[in-house]
Amino acid sequence: MTAPLLACVGPAQHGVRMHAENLASRTPQAPSVCGEWPQLRDELRRGTSAVHLHVTDRIFGTSPALAAEALTGLARSRPLSVTLHDIPQPSDGHAFEARRAAYAAIVDAARLVVLSSDSERAQLHRHVPFTTTPELAVDPLPVDPPEPRQWHEARRRAAHPADPTVGVLGFLYPGKGHDRVVGALAGVSGPVEVLALGRASDGHEDLVPELDAAARAHGHSFRATGFLDDAALTRAAQAVTVPVVAPSHVSASGSVGRWIAAGRRPLVTAHPFFEELAGRAPWALTLTEDLEAALARALADPLSTWIDPAAWRTEDLPSTELAAAVQWARVTGAHHPGAHHPGETA
Q1: Cα distances (Å, whole numbers) of residue 117 to 50, 158, 293
Q2: What is the pTM (predicted TM-score) of this model?
Q3: Contacts of 219 (CB under 8 A, 6+ apart)
Q4: Angle 45-50-56 (CA atoms, 0-180°, nearest 5)?
Q5: Number of C-beta neighbours around residue 16 at 10 A
Q6: pLDDT-derived band of residue 342, with 50, 70 and 90 as boundaries?
Q7: Which of 2, 26, 90, 323 is the most buried (most CB within 10 A)?
Q8: Which of 110, 90, 40, 97 is nearest to 64 (CA)?
Q9: pLDDT (tens digit, 9 = 90+) per residue, 68-104?
């Protein structure tokens, strides 16, 4: 029997493609392809073996309807399984109805649908009107611990910060939480620099001067670093004084995992996904419903925003190696219903 194909689709810098590539790279027995959808579309449609893709509608078309058309068309050519990201929710605003219809079509076309959290599975059932009964599975996003020596040195330096910074990791776009952080610093004595660790999403470059103006009104400043490769992102994540995850629009967030993978214990605003993660790994993040007060405390005690290496529990957060093995077992059918993989949410 021909092995399933792992297709890593999207722009090279997109987190969903990078996550798919990370898992594929740890699955040497699996055939894989990487590229943007227009480059891969014809090749994928010519194949006949099963194919697994990590999916957010934005990387498969310029509209949710076009993304659904792309994936349902692919499913007519070969068996399709998907890991869904960015599940539709009312905070999508005017795009919500189109996105939920697109995701319903994708779920109806797939034989296996994987989510990254129980809260996402509940969100899928609540907001996406699919009509079939595919196999649904929950496999948490992987998080690997940082390199020990770099982690130790960065924690040591954190005890004596120079100019305080507050970091938000990932692409800059509305709803990511940069504005929440700037607003929460209004009552904090400064100056504090708010850093977006990444670049503005296409079409949202105007947010940088807008957020800087808002920050300067309270004696602070705002700056985006631009795109950072993996090593540079780790260094930047370990250099900021206080890491924050405060989005108004939440799916299973790769940003919080990226902070944790740098050894940081980020301040995280309340949301079912983050609460679920805190339940599994309470040592890895600090939940707060009062971001202003939490920021003030963390700026006064930067070491509170670091994970103690002795507290890291690999049984709480699956490694990339384990997540790749679980994914491969899923897509090859080696995972039998009722079986339980380490690191899986039962």
Answers
A1: 24, 32, 29
A2: 0.84
A3: 189, 190, 191
A4: 70
A5: 22
A6: very low
A7: 323
A8: 97
A9: 999 999 999 999 999 999 999 888 889 999 999 999 9
